[in-house]
What does this fold into?
Amino acid sequence: MNDIVFGKKDDVSVVLSGEAGQGIQTVEQILTGLLKLSGYNIFGTKEYMSRVRGGSNSTLIRVSSRRVTSVVDAIDILIPFDRAAFDHVASRVSTDTLIICEADKLFTDAMEPRERVIDIPFAALASEAGGAMYLNTVATGVVAGLFEIDRDVFEHHVREYFAGNKDAVIHNNVTAGCNGFNEIQRLNKSGRIAIDIKRNAAVADEILMNGASAIGIGAIAGGCNFIASYPMSPATAVLVFLAAHSAEYGIVVEQAEDEIAAINMALGAWFAGARAMVSTSGGGFALMEEAIGLAGMIESPIVVHLAQRPGPATGLPTRTEQGDLQLVFYAGHGEFPRIILAPGTLDDAVYCTHQAFNLADKFQVPVFIMTDQYLMDTYYNIPSVNLSDMRIIKYIVKTSEGYRRYELTDSGISPRGIPGFGSGFVCADSDEHDEDGHITEDLDLRVRMVDKRLAKLEAMRQDAIPPVLTGDAAYTVLVLGWGSTCNVIKEALSRIGRDDLAFLHFVQVYPLHPDTIDYLARADKVIMIEGNATAQLAGMLKRELDFNVHETILKYSGLQFSVEELVERIMEKMG
Amino acid sequence: MREDNFDMGAIDIAWCPGCGNFSILEALRGSLSELDIDPEKLVMVSGIGQAAKIPHYVKCHVFNGLHGRALPPATAIKAANPALTVIAAGGDGDMYGEGGNHFLHTLRRNPDITNIVHNNMVYGLTKGQASPTSRMGFTTPVQVGGVTEVPMNAVAIAIAQDASFVARAFSGDVERTREIMKKAIAHRGYALIEILQNCVSFNKINTFQWFRQHTYYLEDSYVPTDRADAFRRATETDALPLGVFYVNPDKPCFEDTLPVYRLTREPLFMRTLDLNRLADLVESKRGS
It folds into this structure.
């Protein structure tokens, strides 16, 4: 202990690693909330295996004086629960990493990094509190103690977190937490571990949430009152969030028998005047494709939240990827317009999801919100969510006698009536249909109906959310990205620190905003960054704008890009 | 009988002359008129097939969706606006084959909808292949050696799953079909009415005459509240019983279980969310 000097100043990454079932998630949830309430900027994310027990999972918590919103490789403080947990993240351990663990249980070889180890008798401290199951709460106390959280605040927070459990469980967790807290403070009396992160009272009052909650809040803000889904990682969290708030905000929530039923329910709900969404991942969405075509034909609004994970087939169920853009772009047979949104930040997630409902209703088309496991499971603090600019815009019309659901109009948009509102009849048919909605085999009318449906694309393009430029407008090298890579790319660029380098983030990937080509044409070199193996957005730029990106940086291991990795790879491509 | 409030006037109907669907359509419009259902409050939902075209021939709102997928949107339409009367109609291939999983789970869910299944034991629109209810040995251009799978007994399945209303009718008897249909539509909860019908073009075995000879009505003294008894009668397949097999009036309907209708039955489209209330949720993310 005496030899250890840890003087990391203002941005510390803490990694906890252990088996599934050892309560790593609990540690993450308690600590992110607690550290934020104590005035620290927080970022949390996790990577985990598709199993309920065993294996090795890890969670990263960045604690900083500055706002932090992205994942890093570097580990400043590592708390491995066992040897396998250490090995799991060993490639990220450096000579600067402080390791807090039960040393004898982890390291048998004298050559191993004992000089960076703070030895804490985790098992004994957990056992004193009631058993091995409290090991995670001991670790929570250790981290809280390291960051010098107020002890009463810590105790209160642990108590609150376990509220609703049996008294003994609450008591034992508080004891375990305090055991860890006291032990690290005792060991650190000499003050050799100096963590000097500035606390900010304003941060304590900020909002802390993850991507799943942001999508859920955006959905409610968009007037969502119906969700039908089939559980699938990593999309389930949105279903769970809306279920938790269903009574309060008047949302019908149904866990359907399969994804096919889920989306057909959502289409039925829109038909009857509700604002419905489904939340799924790639494999589940593959089952929904048939109904996406139905939405295209009957010109039904539908909001699809697609939280991507690596495919094909079952792939890596708990990992992240951006591999489904083309799936969504081409989903459903036949030709019809659609909108594809890809939030990059928590603010984007709220805004896009809110906007998705208005856009779907306005243009009577499928609107996709593409996230991924990384964004779903990522937490950080943000100052506020601006609800004041958000409006729930409903485009339903009251029908009168002789109402024609598919009336041919110049814009291609026919006023949308619903059953039981007005005296007209509403007829929706998956067959090609006439203006009344009834089956037709009039082939001239068929052509007019296809043209009418596709005519909406132009207005949709005019309404597109513009791409967002970060950096000096006088760039020569332009980095492109979409969806969840946004914050990682931003931090990488800020570390690179070059004036000639800028970043264009696509919050809407289809239809592309009309300004897109101007941004691209101004650069000498355009580098596309995507979390997939085939550069799918680059393919979209080629198809839509006949633009070829010059370089690509791709990743499809199942993990998000880290900031360090992007710094290195961008520098390489810049030459 | 009242006048037909659901007449579409002179429209082109895509069924073959002599098809059992005409009688089903007649019985349906008659039962709706007699029940005094408001056409403006009626939604007919269907999938694909000859039977699934029936909503187009009834004056009402229509959701003619995908093959096999009538029940999920029908459930959702009722859940989004409980003031509507919702009928999901289609054939044996549509409801029991392509839509078999939805059928099973709609039995569990018990939405207050009526499910009319036209059962002619053959695929019509695709021109004569076996359906899930084709009898064993039935030969077709695909099942050239005859059907080897056991036909699906949806009435028995529905009773086994404690569906809240289960009936079977025969299109050759419009009057009694209409009476059974009226009970099914008036029933609160999921109501299955399977209607046996002939297919003049593709089923030369199970003809109008065959159904006449192979069906009989449950006796007047039959009480449809004993599930074991109902199940036993449903497993009779040499002569197929007709009538109301089973009623469970105590099963709560899907919409009634939804928290959104605890305080008001107002349909979802009439509601507006006060975004200030959402602010409370956002604020709660600040912690305490």
About this structure: The first strand of chain A starts at residue 11 and ends at 20. Residues 167-187 of chain A form the longest helix (21 residues). DSSP finds 21 helices and 21 strands in chain A.
